[in-house]
Structures are given as structure tokens and as C-alpha cells.
Amino acid sequence: MSVVIDPLGAGLVSNLAHPQGNVTGVSMMAPDLIGKQFEVLKQVVPEVTRVAVLWNPANPGSASQLREAEVAARAVGLRLQSLEALPRKSTAPSRQ
């Protein structure tokens, strides 16, 4: 079983309506969700002006989510600070 944030961005399908081929899975694409989250944040903390978003540039779906967050933040008057979250490289010796 697999979950993909953005099957289009990941290159798994060329069209969501007609994905073609033998592809089955779950997409986490919810572009309206981040906007709603920012709206609720502004209602709960009206004085908020800036919000940070962690994203992983190595994940193909992260870039599209970041773009959606940027649009949503502007719509509610927030400044978005994007912070890259990359996996830490292991310095421990591998066990065999």
C-alpha cells in the first residue's frame, strides 16, 4: 500500500481523471486544506502575521504543497517562511 502527496508531480500519472496503466493508491492532495488551516489560525490567533512551513525538497509532492501554502498565506494576510527539512545523513558506521 502506498500514499503519494501529488501523483502528478511525482510522475506516476499524467492525468488524475484517467491515470492509465495499472496504478492504484491514495493521494493526499488537498489544496484547500492548508487555506482552511490558515483561516482557522487567524481566527484563533488574530494577531498572527507570520507562519513557518517545513518542507522536504527531496519529496516531489512537497513543492506543490509549498506553492499552495504560499497562495493560501497571501489570501489571509500571512507571511510564509519556508524551512527545508532534509533527512540527516547518518555518520554512524553501518552494521552488517
Written account of the structure:
Helix 2 links the parallel strand 3 and strand 4. The longest helix is centred in the C-terminal third of the chain and has 16 residues. Strands 1-2 form a two-stranded parallel sheet. The protein contains two helices and four strands.
Indicate the topology.
Blueprint: E1 3-4, E2 26-27, H1 31-44, E3 50-55, H2 60-75, E4 79-84
Compute the average pLDDT: 81
Shape: globular
Work out the helicity level: 25-40%
How are the strands of the largest sheet arranged? 1-2
Major sheet attributes? 2 strands, parallel
Protein structure class: alpha/beta
Low-confidence stretches: none
How many DSSP H or I helices? 2
Total count of strands: 4
- In terms of DSSP E residues, the strand content is 15-25%
Rounded Rg: 17 Å
Q: What's the N-to-C terminus distance? A: 29 Å
H/E element string? Answer: EEHEHE
Short note summarizing the structure:
By secondary structure, the protein is of the alpha/beta class.
What key attributes describe this structure?
two-stranded parallel ribbon, alpha/beta, two-stranded parallel sheet, 31% helix, 96 residues
